[in-house]
Amino acid sequence: MFRDRREAGQVLANLLSAYRDNPNVIVLGLARGGLPVAWEVAAALRAPLDAFIVRKLGAPGHEEFAVGALASGGRVVVNDDVLRGLRVTSAQLRDIVEREGRELVRREAAYRGGRPPVQVTGRTVILVDDGLATGASMFAAVQALRDAEPAHIVIAVPAAPESTCREFEDLVDEVVCASMPTPFLAVGESFWDFRQVSDEEVRELLAKPTTGLALIKPAAPTAAEMIADVAVDAPQGIPPREILEQVIGDARVVLIGESSHGTHEFYEARAEITKWLIEEKGFCAVAAEADWPDAYRLNRYVRGLGKDTTAEAALSGFERFPAWMWRNTVCRDFADWLRAYNQRAPRQAGFYGLDLYSLHRSMHEVISYLDTVDSAAAARARVRYACFDHPAGDDGQAYGYKAAFGAGPKCERQAIEQLVELQRNALDYLRADGLLAEDELFYAQQNAQTVRDAEVYYRSMFSGRVSSWNLRDKHMAQTLEALLNHLDRHGDGHPARIVVWAHNSHVGDATATEVWADGQLTLGQLARQRYHGEARLIGLSTYTGTVTAASEWGGIAERKVVRPALPGSVEDLFHQTGKDAFLVSSRINQKAAEPMSAVRLGRAIGVIYQPATERQSHYFHVRPDDQFDAMIHIDTTRALEPLETTSVWIAGETPETYPSGL
């Protein structure tokens, strides 16, 4: 989402940087809404600017419904099907065209103040508007421009439906759509400020020079230069301790992200920062984007409990795709470090999971716990949870599909009943004294809560991506709060402090990204709302390198080449600083706020990486300064090493430049 049209123009200018200082380029803004956007583009490219006026031809009696458009130069484009459907006569159409034509001439004269229009013949024309919906006005503009015989036509808009952008790709030389929200509701939904542009504003913008600006005032530093000036070196992604102290302060919850689920440096830097948080800041738990029962097995290991004698054995519970997220060399080494730390520390630090994919595994753990404390309750739990076995076996997604479409039973009631009974009997189950008994009860209760939330989640998967995403992040936020409350009771008066490991797309604040317009929320956003100044969000990014990821859901782990980040992205901006690894934060230096407050593309590689559709699959618009409290950038990174490496992973992926590239 863009702050206003001006910011949208700045984002577009970044995406059009290849046209900068090209004397053959001219920028035309569709009046009126496109002019503020176009001025920013023209000024950044140092290209001439002019207005291009398109008037909608509204149907008689239904003026808001377009039957066509009239563009500068007198070009009329109509939709014959609509004309026939609305039974618009030739005489009516002629009257509409004449009326709108008079208004078009008036506006052209008023906007230019007597200046002739810029000549476009033989030039590269960048047509800019504040967005596209049906594209009727832009289509009329393109058709009218063709009569003037420009050399090339480029369309650039901040927001449009993907289908509309694709349609124009066959009509012009290049289409730049900065964002393609899904679902696309209206152009104005992509802006915080979408006030109507007045005739006076258009006149002022056209009178304001966009060329020769370097002669008027010294060139301002670029965003990359501003970042480089305030960035703090962070070798291998690990900032100096005094800088971490400034960023984190007395926060109770520190969320550390990653822009992929398979980058070695992200995991290594996060582990090293976490060690400092535990040793020096008193943090007592890691809460990861991992399933609750699988992570709890590792928790038992690091605390010297359970049957596992090695970290690899403790990590073997992570069987569900993508196993490499936690079954990797960095997590193994961190688990061994944490176990050794706990053997000497006065207060142990644990490892917990926040996610909800473990529907059947959590049911099994609830029953196993009840078998040890209440055999009758265990029998009732088996009966209730048997509801899930009929439609899907142990496949949560299959259960959700059948329940959502009426092909199998819905087990919501049974999941709720089991959770309520376990909570009601909690005090009775604490007959055994000591922390361990309470820990095991808490573990069982959270498993029952996970079953209840996972049941809803798997059904919601088939009703919309946003609803299922929100259920998942709300579950993670609720689990985090429950864990804080549980650990608070055993802190000898010291409040619990937790570090969260999750993807940037969960850690970052959704209100500073384009997904907020779709109603999507994130764990980081919820943490800020719940803990206010006691939450810190830290994002990690990279420009290029390799990554461990699959090509499809459930696929084998591959070592893939990460393409250089797209122009106009946060990662590209950081790359332009020329620094290998650094931290940047307006909490450390307020000068970082300006370059970090602009809307840019941000890359998100999950467990699947699809380079062929990278823009659509892995980028969305973000405002980094509001999304995170700090960002750590590592320019070149390598793939995370799974504990079980296959021949496919070892072979890796041939870079696209092979055999000519070096």
Automatic annotation (TrEMBL):
Q: What's the superkingdom here?
A: Bacteria
Coiled coil located at which positions?
Answer: none
> Could you give a single Gene Ontology term from the biological process aspect?
response to antibiotic
Q: Where is the Phosphoribosyltransferase domain?
A: 15-170
What name does this protein carry? Phosphoribosyltransferase domain-containing protein
